[in-house]
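REQUEST ID: PR-0412
SUBMITTED BY: lab tech R.K.
PRIORITY: routine
TASK: structure prediction, single protein chain
INPUT:
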Amino acid sequence: MHFSFLDIISWLEQKELPCLFKKYFHFDCPGCGFQRSIIALLKGNITESFLLFPTTIALLIFFVCFFTNNKYQFANRGIVLNIGLIFIFTVFASSYFYKII
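STATUS: complete
OUTPUT:
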C-alpha cells in the first residue's frame, strides 16, 4: 500500500479532535484552531494557517532554532531561546485575547 502526502493530510482532516472546551463553555479555548492551522500549513496555505492560529508559525520557527542551537551550540543560546519563548507567549496571548474580544 502506497500513501502520498495528500493522503496523510486527508487522514488528518478526517481525524481532527473536537474541542470539548468550546462544546461545554460555548467559546474558543486558547488552542482552538491549532489542528486546522497545522493542516493548512501542511497544504502550503501559510496565510490561512496564520489566521487560524498565529502561534503555529512562531512555534515552528522556535523549534527550528531550538534544534539548531542544540546541534551547533551557539553562544548566548539561552538568551535567544528565552526571547523566543517570550515572543511565542506574546503572540499566543495577544491572538487569543483578540479572538475572544
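NOTES: Helices lie at 5-14, 20-25, 34-42, 46-52, 55-72, 77-100.
REVIEWED BY: pending
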